[in-house]
Amino acid sequence: MKSSHGPARVFAAFDESNLIAHAGLVPVIRLAERCDLPALVAEKVKLTGAKNGAGTAADAKTMSIVGGMVAGADSIDDLDILRHGGLGKLFGGVRAPSTLGTFLRAFTWGHVRQLEAAARAFTCNLAAHTGLVPKTDEVVFVDIDSKVKQVYGPAKQGASFGYTKVRGLHFQIVTVKTSTCAPVIVATRLRKGSAGSGKGAASLLREALATVRAMGITAQIVVRADSAYFSHKVVDVCRKAGARFSLAVAVTKTIRAAIETIGPDVWTPIKYTDAVWDEEEERWISDAEIAEVPFTAFTSKKKAFHTTARLIVRRVKRLNPKTVPDGQSELFAVWRHHVIFTDSVFVLTDAEPMHRAHAAVEQVFADLEDSALAHLPSGKFTANAAWLTLAAAAYNLTRAAGHLASIFHAKARTGTIRRHLIHVPARIARPGRRIVLHLPQHWCQADDFTDLWTALGQRMQT
Fold it and tell me: DSSP secondary structure string, 294-322?
């Protein structure tokens, strides 16, 4: 590839009022409207008493923020991306970034909770309208995890130092996925930076499981989480909701004692890093092995919380003997142990890799930080909490659009969906009282864009 003309012959001017850079917003915003996002916000979010009219037209302002996030905005100022070229001819009610910033800062914690309720209902509508989460799969996985989002201003409300040793705000998300679909966010919560990973997890998980059932999903639910969420409260929520659990467990003195009761002949080699399949013996030759033993957890709590289930242990050979903790037996000098506490009904060789697939939630964090959650843009804590809620709604909306477009985009990263389906330039024409978007010839994802466009009841010009 090379330039076809010299610089003296190439000019540029920002003077075309009929061009837009994000034609994919047209079907995506229509999808949000069909799934009642504006109506839900108008019904549930009541910013009464806000100064300077900040609480008026909450539906239009929310749609402006979500639309900007879908287009790739990662700060309040970036929301001005919706006011270029001919977008005003396609969308009404777009608000200026300063207005949207004032709107976010008007939120109290009660208003954030109202917005979360609207977002949960919107997610259910998205799932019903697009089939975003299949109802026919036999098992549905609900993953809960948290992340510290680093911030740089000491005046930002709630920002403090936690286990990561960086100043930040600590947020939780809960996702739902199956073996055939990508993760969908069903609950979020922002906490101060010093909050523990598992703080408030039980109540958030309770809301998430109710949302999953409200989607019409009747399959068996398995809740997966790391060791920060190993608590009697989380297990109690799972059991009351009729869900199974699969929770990582820290290797404490009690857990080590349980591991030492496992006989040497019951360990099963598994497919793991550098594993080799032995054709003759029909087994893996591996540095990783798994076994299980019955275990009763939470015996220090009242008897109602005592839980007997399976302790699944994966042991991996230590490559560096210097990492052995002092006072541990030879068993722990040779092997590193990773432990899961679960009441899963699946056989050992299925239950253990199913839990490891919990790592898929990290991809959701990466997607969020590659878009709207690149920043928590306000100095006010509740404004950032509202921003997090809307970022999750924009993520789900983008993923639903990808689901309508193609099998590939149904599981693609949201950044890929934006590049292929949202960031499509177009020229607006108005022949015969119609609006026609003239799109680039030979666009590499033209067929998938067409599928998305027509799925929302719009027609392509022939």
Answer: EEEE-TTS-GGG-EEEEEEEEEEE-S-GG
